[in-house]
Amino acid sequence: MRLKLDPWPAEFDSPLAIEEGASVSRQVDATVESAQWAAIPSTNAGAACCFVDGVRRVEARVLGEKDGVLVHGLLGSLAAGFVRAADGVAQFGEVHVSRYLILGKGEAQSMELRIGSQSLPFDAYATEHNSPDGVLAELQSLMRMAEARIAEQLATQDACVFVDGLSYRATGRFDVIGVIKRILEPYLQPAEFALVETLKKAERTPLFRIIDGTYERYSCFLRLADPRPFEHPLAGVVRIEIGAAVGIERAQALAALAAGMLPRFASSPMRDPRAPQNLLPVGALEQEMRRRMGDTILIRRAIEKRLHEQRDW
Amino acid sequence: MNREIGRVLGTADAQPLDFWVAVPADEILQLDDVVLVNRELRDGRTVSLYGIVDILAARHEGARLDSDVFLGSEGVLPLQQVVKAHVTVTRVEPEIFVPPMPGDPVLLATGPDRDQALFFDNMKRRFPLGLARDGEPVHGNFEFLDGSRGAHVNISGISGVATKTTYATFLLYGIFNGGLLGGEVSNTHALIFNVKGEDLLFLDKPNTALKPEEAARYAKLGLTPGPFPDVAIYAPVKAGQDYMIPDTGKRSDVSVFAWTITEFCKQRYLRYLFTEADDESNQISFVAERVEAMLAAHVPNVDTFEELVDHIIANPVQGYAPGTIAAFERRLRAAIPRVGHLIRGKVDDPEKNTINWQRAQVTVIDIHNLHDRAKRFVIGVVLRRMFEDKEKTGSRKPLAFVVLDELNKYAPREGRSPIKEVILDMAERGRSLGVILIGAEQTASQIERRVVANSSFRVVGRLDLAEAQNNEYAFLPSPSRARAGILKPGTVIVSQPEIPVPLLVQFPFPAWATRPEEAPAERKGNPFPRK
């Protein structure tokens, strides 16, 4: 058996996570754009575009007790922001940082930390999911909502808004493109999916419609960069999603735009371990947002100090 | 009003004596700008830290690889430009040495705050050193020049581009014409040796190349541009002529100087003919002293220096090895063609043909046409005369300034010579006698250490970068050393005792002619036309 490399480092989940026997339990219509299933080359596009992303960080997990029941919770920070690339300049937009004290069992409680002369409030957020994963999922969804708010705002101004991951779905029917870095499912029939491996840089598959009862959307695979000979042929491919509500013509235009723009912003392995899928502006934005969330050790110390102060012994 | 130009940054240590400032990309802060930070203490006191910008650095934040700059300029990668400035603290008021706090606003110091930062407020008597890059005046504390707390100026720099003598004359112009000396100005004198070219022979002529806008720069320094008003110029007598004709180039309306054989013998000037650095190391100097004593006791009746030499050789001193006597005689004979014409049986007018450094405010002695040996003789004799005159008056004031270029020839680091003794004497005792040396040389590393060490003001023009690494320039912080290699004519770096950092100053274009071409055309009827 000849082996091929999965280029992402091992500390990240594999970008090629298709499992054997992944059932295609949904309906996929691969004929929405074209009756002929063949690669579509990009036309060179140069529009202003925005890249929206968010990051989250658990500052500390906390535990409480209510009526003899353990209450799970966490103190988390999240940031959402965007990079606008237009007229040959890429610039950070405003970055929104929020902090939450998320507690299970519907408990609502806020906390304020003091670091130097600054005050750091963690807003109360109650959830019924009382488990470590449950409260973490709430933080994740709060981040998704923050991303969606930004994308929604931008979509009214800019031609083209790319959102990292699935958060675009929360924006309703604005012209927002979701960029999914990892291939978790083939969606397509094996014969159709074979086309993905043969895509050249900046080529995409025709759009296909995914009907699974959750969120009606168009999607296609798009190659950002050609793999090196020893890498798996699926390396360097992303999938984009566009809400079906915009209509096929608009979706087609947006897909063309994405195919024209995204390869330009693809990262290279020496800049980003998750190259090329983690786009350059997105990588820079993540770094910037992590910085804006503050120093993790300082915050951790402040939390310990704050918890120490509430002692009643 | 002081404007905020940045904030103390916290990614590098801020220290009581130096710190870094982050400057917004749209602000302009340049090297040599004077800044101020006020730090509020808990007890309600405010400490003001004044400083000077000596390093500026711009970089991309968010870039990790050198090639990120291309991605940034293609509009693919967002990068942030940031400028940071390093500030060396010059003064802390009151003297509570605390660091400025990261985040504290940094102000551009202007007006009284700038004066405070540069200690100008403490200078009771000050003289102009030039203009800073921001066009504001830079003063020197006159107490460190007039001998009360220090004296002397030493100027180093490459010939031609460092404009050392021009700066020396500018300093004199400021001292004489800035109203600083008050009533003493008429009794204060300067003696300038013109050792190279004819640069200093036109101090009394207005500079035709002076642009009208320079007047504003002079005005900023409290000066009115113009030539030196009261200048006497002496040139050596021409060799091989019966009449006393000055040996000059383009300038002819000058006084002629020479010495009589009687004066030469009585005043014991013979030693200044033996000024090679190695002359002192052998027995020749002892022979010379013996001969001097002999001549002083009995002046021979001769008409020319050649006859005097014959007389000396005919009456050899006893008690020395024949080799020493022969060496002495050989050197003495060698002096005839070089110095002989300056020592004559008689002079036309002893009053006019003797150098009198007190005749005019500024006396220029032109020796550029003379052989090195004759130059040394003239400098040695004139300086000793001046020194003796000052010693006789016994008071420091009125001051006497001496401008001497090519100090490395007259006060070299190695060896001893009578002329070096005179200059060293001036450097060490001149302060109390009111004799102020404004010395210049290409390389301070070749000068007698004590001459440089005794100078309160150290000035550096364009320097050879290898020279700038020598210990003599340790007073220059490394950014200043690097800049010394690219200084333009008209720009110098000045260090003075009170200000802990050397300041870069520009001095206005000279208002007096520094070359024959810059002087207005001469009147017709030149009595000594050039052949």
Q: Structural class of chain B, please? A: alpha/beta
**Low-confidence blocks of residues of chain A:** none
CATH superfamily of the largest domain in chain B: P-loop containing nucleotide triphosphate hydrolases
Oligomer: heterodimer
List the helices and strands and how they pair.
The complex is a heterodimer of chains A (313) and B (531).
Chain A: E1 27-29, E2 40-41, E3 49-66, E4 69-86, E5 89-92, E6 96-103, E7 111-115, E8 118-126, H1 132-155, E9 160-164, E10 176-180, H2 190-198, E11 203-204, E12 208-211, E13 217-223, E14 237-243, H3 248-265, H4 280-292, H5 296-309
Parallel strand pairs in A: 3-9, 6-8, 9-10
Antiparallel strand pairs in A: 1-12, 2-11, 3-4, 4-5, 4-6, 7-8, 10-14, 12-13, 13-14
Chain B: E1 3-8, E2 18-23, E3 34-40, E4 46-61, H1 68-73, E5 80-93, E6 105-108, H2 111-117, E7 126-131, E8 137-141, E9 151-156, H3 164-177, E10 189-194, H4 214-220, E11 231-236, E12 255-257, E13 259-260, H5 261-266, H6 284-297, H7 305-314, H8 322-339, E14 343-344, E15 362-366, H9 372-393, E16 400-404, H10 407-410, H11 418-433, E17 435-441, H12 449-453, E18 455-460, H13 465-468, H14 478-484, E19 491-495, E20 503-506
Parallel strand pairs in B: 9-17, 9-18, 10-15, 10-16, 11-12, 11-15, 13-14, 16-17
Antiparallel strand pairs in B: 1-2, 1-6, 2-5, 3-4, 3-6, 4-5, 7-8, 18-19, 19-20
